[in-house]
Amino acid sequence: MFADKLSTRTHFVGTSEIREVLKVTEKPEVISFAGGLPAPELFPVEDIKVACDAILTESGVEALQYSTTEGYTPLRQAIVTRLKKMGIDTTVDHLLMISGSQQGLDLTGKLLLNEQDTVICESPTYLAAINAFKVYNASFVEVETDEDGMNMEKLEKALQTNPQAKFIYTIPDFQNPTGRTLSLSRRKKMVALANQYNVLIVEDNPYGAIRFAGEPLPPIKHFDTEERVIYLSTFSKIFSPGLRLGWICAHEDFIKQYVAFKQAADLHTDSFAQRITAKYIELFDLDAHIEKIKAVYHHRRQTMIDCIDRFFPKQVTHSSPEGGLFIWVELPESVNSREVFEVCIQNDVAFVPGQAFFPNLKKENTFRLNYSNMPDRKIIEGMRRLGQVLHSFLNSNVANF
Amino acid sequence: MFADKLSTRTHFVGTSEIREVLKVTEKPEVISFAGGLPAPELFPVEDIKVACDAILTESGVEALQYSTTEGYTPLRQAIVTRLKKMGIDTTVDHLLMISGSQQGLDLTGKLLLNEQDTVICESPTYLAAINAFKVYNASFVEVETDEDGMNMEKLEKALQTNPQAKFIYTIPDFQNPTGRTLSLSRRKKMVALANQYNVLIVEDNPYGAIRFAGEPLPPIKHFDTEERVIYLSTFSKIFSPGLRLGWICAHEDFIKQYVAFKQAADLHTDSFAQRITAKYIELFDLDAHIEKIKAVYHHRRQTMIDCIDRFFPKQVTHSSPEGGLFIWVELPESVNSREVFEVCIQNDVAFVPGQAFFPNLKKENTFRLNYSNMPDRKIIEGMRRLGQVLHSFLNSNVANF
User: Which family does it belong to (chains A, B) (predicted)?
Assistant: First the structure.
């Protein structure tokens, strides 16, 4: 209907395959490791009730009125304080509040990408970032990753063969989908390469605060000597995703341009949600809340890895994240994870087949598991079912040879 | 800085002139008729407190978690009920919740506009719609308007000379900036012309519910025989703009595409804000609340028009809105409203010079007045100052000849 009226963008952005996957997993009997949802029982509902009440009593009118595109200054000030502790020394003038960090990806596409411009990214990478940049008809150059994140030699080759690349898109901490973290030396090297080859870095960091093992690492932006790093983050994983609150931290000239595009896109981010979050940070202890999240996720990650050891065939390998929400699984190359998925769904267990996380390559033998959203009991039962299906696939594959 | 990294879109969307205007008007001593803000003292703060408390008690976890891109179904159901009363017979499958109706403009640009595609619009039109479509490098064809809205003969000529035009963008009710309303016969005619010339209509209706005089008219979408009308509206003017809640009502095929773009843009609209609004509609009487808004705006509109009669030179003409937030003023052609603005600011009174509302034509002798955001006392004092400045301009202009 009216197909002649649609823009060419509609060719790049179909209804995503992942949405169809998630729909299948919505039946209550399915144990789903597919989504990337925080543990809902940890949301500080009672404290948020106190914060809401305080905001509506003290500044209800301002919370409900139009406000500035840049965002609520006390909240931006609180973010500045948090960023300083992480090693990013910045000011409110370098911060724009956005409707979740996903909007940061869309606005970044708008700000930087012309048709057919190249984005250099990890292989695999966050599928909704692929979609956000595809809206602007971007091309992707994937760089191999290992347990320490993006391979710097391969990155340098990619920069040499793609001198017009606009930016490197990276999720350095507990990456989606792999759970892997970029090592300290590679962080420094990435900045050095960006300077040398005159390319920007878009550092997407939704999970960095959820480190439950190993040593904390400073963000890439900590090493940024030429203000080339555009840093995106969010309250979704440490507070509430439903409120849709993220931020961009970047050079002031970029922020001014982002503000113009943000204003054309949705005027400003929900004022009430911004004030609730600022009030919560003022009245309660966000860091203590994050400690609770970490403890629960650490435990669930361990339960899931124990289950992999116990239930999965030995040929299956996996990442060992020190934080975040995801484990990445690789099957022998002969196995297609979409076929595994079809059988799993019949056994009421789900994950996300890995293909969607590769903009070009489509490695068929991978999948992503989420452990944050599920109690132990269900993790164990779901992984048992998944293990059975994997055994059946690996045996039948063995039998074929 | 990094100018070589920016997309060509940045050429079309600078920081808008209007933002600079609004910054000047932010000083507390300025009486500003510049913004388009609802009367803040009417926000139902205490009732919203009750709704928040109920949501956090009954479904706090769901309100704070990720949710579906389409939006909260009970809220969409409530909108369906409201639309039915206005003459739009639809279902939740034809509705997408968005982050304010401004996002509807951005998503519409994304969905429909290729580079240099033509948008047919009223002359003048909403300046943030111009900016939203300019992001996608649209061209604009302006159609003359009078007290009954867009001129249909001129519209037909525009359709004939621009057969590739993608859509007609119109604000039929109490238009921004003119306050004018498209007549009943022209609504029917616009649909007939859209059918005949195979073009879509984007009906932007943020103000329609705020009718305080004259007879209600059905939306253009009421007359839509071929599902060509994409209808945008919002809770900003009837409930709270700070919560950033709007909706798109359109053919299901369009909604599916909008959902894909919305998901890439910001995943979904704030779940908590959606549930607060649905709960408010369930517990309280939104229509009774709108009646209060209408009574106040009707009174303020009358105060402002009385002041025009009393303080303005007789050569100055103005629109006579039966609803909404704005009055449009035309000066003799020799007077430039930007120069008037400069003098007004020195006298601590402000408006928006009309130029920004014309994508191409830039009529210099017009400006927009807002009456919703200001108590009587301030309206009278501000209009007195503005009248003085206009008299000085018209006398000096007379003296020049």
Answer: Belongs to the class-I pyridoxal-phosphate-dependent aminotransferase family.
- Alpha-helical (H) ranges within A225-320 are 252-266, 271-283, 286-311
Q: How far apart are CA A22 and CA A18, in angstroms?
A: 6
pLDDT surpasses 50 at A401: no
Instruction: Determine the distance in angstroms separating the CA of B372 from the nearest CA of chain A, rounded to an integer.
Output: 13
Write down the pLDDT at residue A21. 75
B266 contacts in A (CB within 8 Å)?
Answer: 98-100, 102-103, 106, 244, 266
The H-or-E segment that residue A248 falls in is: strand A246-249
Domain A45-283 has CATH 3.30.365.10: no
User: What per-residue confidence (pLDDT) applies to B398?
Assistant: 46
Contact between B267 and A100 using a beta-carbon 8 Å cutoff: yes
Query: How far away is chain A from the Cα of B1, in angstroms, using its nearest Cα?
Result: 7
Q: Count other C-beta atoms under 10 Å from residue B261's C-beta.
A: 24
Q: Which residues of A touch B259 (CB under 8 A)?
A: 15
Return the H-helix or E-strand segment holding A233.
strand A229-234
Domains B16-43+288-400 and B45-283 equal at CATH topology level: no
Question: What is the band of A25 on the pLDDT scale with cuts at 50, 70, 90?
Answer: confident
Residues A67, A78: Cα–Cα separation, whole Å: 18
Q: What is the pLDDT of residue B11?
A: 86
Taking an 8 Å cut-off on Cβ atoms, the answer to whether A240 and B5 are in contact is no
Q: What integer is the mean pLDDT of A72-96? A: 98
Domain ranges of chain A: 14-44+288-400, 45-283
Which pLDDT does position A344 carry in this prediction? 96
Question: Can you list the residues of chain B whose pLDDT is less than 70?
Answer: 14-19, 396-401
**Contact residues, chain B, for A67 at CB < 8 Å:** 242
pLDDT score recorded for residue A398: 46
For residue A110, the one-letter residue type is K
pLDDT tens-place string over residues A101-136: 999 999 999 999 999 999 999 999 999 999 999 999
Rounded Cα–Cα distance for residues B342 and B344 (Å): 5
Instruction: Answer whether residue A399 shows pLDDT above 70.
Output: no
| Confidence at residue B401, expressed as pLDDT on a 0 to 100 scale | 39
Ranges of H-type helices in B87-151: 101-112, 127-134
CA A147 to chain centre: 17
Test mutation, A2, A32, A271, chain B, max B CBs within 10 A: A2
Q: Which of A4, A272, A280 to mutate to test the interface with B (most CBs of B within 10 A)?
A: A272
Cβ contact, residue pair A260, B67, below 8 Å: no
Higher pLDDT residue, A3 or B171?
B171
The H or E element containing residue B200 is strand B200-204
Mean pLDDT for the stretch of residues A215-227: 97
A14-44+288-400: CATH topology is: Aspartate Aminotransferase, domain 1 (3.90.1150)
Given an 8 Å threshold on Cβ–Cβ distance, is A65 in contact with B40? yes
Superfamily name with CATH number, domain B16-43+288-400:
Aspartate Aminotransferase, domain 1 (3.90.1150.10)
Q: Does the CB of B289 have a partner CB in chain A at under 8 Å?
A: no
**Of A48, A64, A260, which has the smallest distance from its Cβ to B16's Cβ?**
A260
Mean pLDDT of chain B: 95
